[in-house]
Amino acid sequence: MANYRRLWLLLLVVLGITFAILGYFGREVYRTAPPIPAQVVTENGTLLTTHDGILDGQTAWQSVGGMQLGSVWGHGAYQAPDWTADWLHRELVAWLELAAQDEFGTAYANLEGEQQAMLQHRLKQEYRSNSYDAEADVLVLSERRAQAMADTAAYYDKLFSDDPALRGTRQSFAMKENTLPSAERRADMNNFFFWTAWAAATERPDSNATYTNNWPHEPLIDNKPTAENIVWSIASVVLLIAGVGGLVWAWSFLRKEDEAAPEPPVKDPLTTFTLTASQKALGKYVFLVVALFTFQVLLGGATAHYTVEGQHFYGIELSKWFPYTLLRTWHIQSALFWIATGFLAAGLFLAPIINSGKDPKYQALGVNVLFWALVAVVVGSFVGNYLAIAQIMPASLNFWLGHQGYEYVDLGRLWQIGKFTGIVLWLVLMLRGVVPALRQPGDRHLLALLTASCAAIGLFYGAGFFYGERTHISVMEYWRWWIVHLWVEGFFEVFATTALAFIFCSMGLVSRRAATTASLASASLFMLGGIPGTFHHLYFSGTTTPVMAVGATFSALEVVPLVVLGYEAWENWRLKNSAPWMENVRWPLMFFVAVAFWNMLGAGVLGFMINPPVALYYIQGLNTTPTHAHAALFGVYGFLALGFALLVLRYIRPNLVFSESLMKTAFWWMNGGLALMLFTSVLPVGVIQFVASASEGLWYARSESFMQQGLLQTLRWVRTFGDVVFIVGALAVTWQVIIGLRQPAGGPLPHTIEPQECDVPELMSK
Known about the structure:
Layout: H1 2-32, E1 39-42, E2 47-50, H2 51-63, E3 71-72, E4 75-76, H3 83-104, H4 113-128, E5 132-133, E6 138-141, H5 143-159, H6 167-172, H7 183-201, H8 227-254, H9 277-280, H10 283-309, H11 324-354, H12 363-389, H13 398-402, H14 413-438, H15 445-460, H16 473-506, H17 512-530, H18 545-559, H19 566-575, H20 586-609, H21 613-619, H22 624-652, H23 660-695, H24 698-701, H25 704-707, H26 710-741, H27 761-765
Parallel strand pairs: 1-6
Antiparallel strand pairs: 1-2, 3-4, 5-6
Helix pairs in contact: 1-17, 2-7, 3-4, 3-5, 3-7, 5-7, 8-18, 10-11, 10-22, 10-26, 11-12, 11-14, 11-16, 11-22, 12-14, 14-15, 15-16, 16-17, 17-18, 18-20, 19-20, 20-22, 22-23, 23-26
């Protein structure tokens, strides 16, 4: 017990310190966010835009899909340009052309080297100088810059309409025709794009770095990594090496000898009681997991094909009804829905086991209500996404019912509230089974940690309500990453670790002490780097150097526990041979082995590839990011959710025998397809873009001329092979689940079993 107390104290100290850091520097995000001026005027007093005009533009951008169509400040989709980098470069080039005509009466390209150098010097001086008057809350721009803005805005106005002159460009960017029909809203959106570019080019007061820490790379105005960027990048690498070394030493010298594994019971303890009504109701959850999974996979194939044909799907002009932006939105949202459903199903399956094999009163009703609430949120949010992107939904309703415009939280606010309500209902259902067990005498530390992780999952999704439709984008990014990073990559990780430990403990395969100790230690390791590591997504989102320092430092520590996950994979692998009846759950265990592998490779190696500030400076917004995202989101949480679904299916259909041919196809083809997709297509494209970004600038790495060159087109076609392999594996696991669900539910009556060392009170005492 004393050892547990030390581990609990360590976890509480880690949580206290890291949340204090996250909160303190979160306040700095609010305080130092780039200003949105009350007025933007020319030197002659002509009004160009206002604070409200810029925010109106932000809402217009959200309504067309926001981050699902190109990106802003590097966050979003990858086929269309990063609008910040693209606008900035186009405006700079327009300024140079205007200056060349004014000063020398000819085109910029016709000037001699010294003349071009002189104009570039003036360009840098004008664009990097901060002409914002904080007292008056007014931004003053030169007449020449105002004209450069107007020239750039004219191009964007044509691009987002149905102007035939730019139809080919829209195809290259996978934009549907007449993306934003309203000319007034296009003008507003242009003001928002201008403001993001202004923040990226303008130095903070008393600083030689811009509001976005000199991002994006733009040689025309000397936007390049700051000295602090390089220093903290080196520091992050040193900390990673030190952290890995420290973990190995601690593992070698501080841990006690491995205790002998308990003698496995003759029969699987989880099959020795009659299924409860709430557990029988979980069949539809498992079906929803694979249904949304299949839907998501097919959408992924279609979305990937849009990067080749732009507006067509093998000759069919699909973008008229289902444009790239919509399919990408559904692709990401359906992934979050089915992965979350897999986790919810695992928790709901455990609740009666924890409660001595019995359902609390009305538990089955709650499980059924939660399911249909999830279905309503899925359908409602998808319909809202469609109506928003089709520009059918009134602008005033878009944020609430349509499309928030922010990647991973695209669903309208009403559906977001519905999702949060559903997660809270799940938490209540879990607590109804857990609380009575917590009151039982004995060691309940593992159960307490599982309960805490359930509470965190239930409540921390609420961070998404701390921003609104017109919230400053820097502040919005802070809270958005609370969900994408902290909620998903942090607390889901702790829940997964603890739930698996509890399941293996309940099976009698792992001792209670070993499961509890490992779970508490892992939770501290995950949270130490994971909570402040949230800031590694915010290096260039209008934040200051201290945020970069914290993000770089702690995100390096995030990787430390991931590089030694080979041991966890081995532990899961060897469990399949621990007892003859473990053959029944061999395939779910194989999925858990895949989780450990992709956690190491996808979250660890590919994650750290884009974590140091100097690396992310050049590759943020390139295809290196989806390489990490696919390997980590599906490779880790996807395989984990499918493993949970298969495990639940096996127990709610006791007579099910997994088909070897189907499961081998599912497991190996999904793993192989994911690897093929990443390493023959997505990553090579990202590496080639990285070279272009470092040499010419981000605008070039995302430009039409660069992305449509033959080699990159071929590499995007090559992705089809990996996608097809993966789809075959996905269909195999879906068909296995459908076959399993067609079998009758039920199970044997309880009978006497050997007591096990775990938190299943009455069941274990029979």
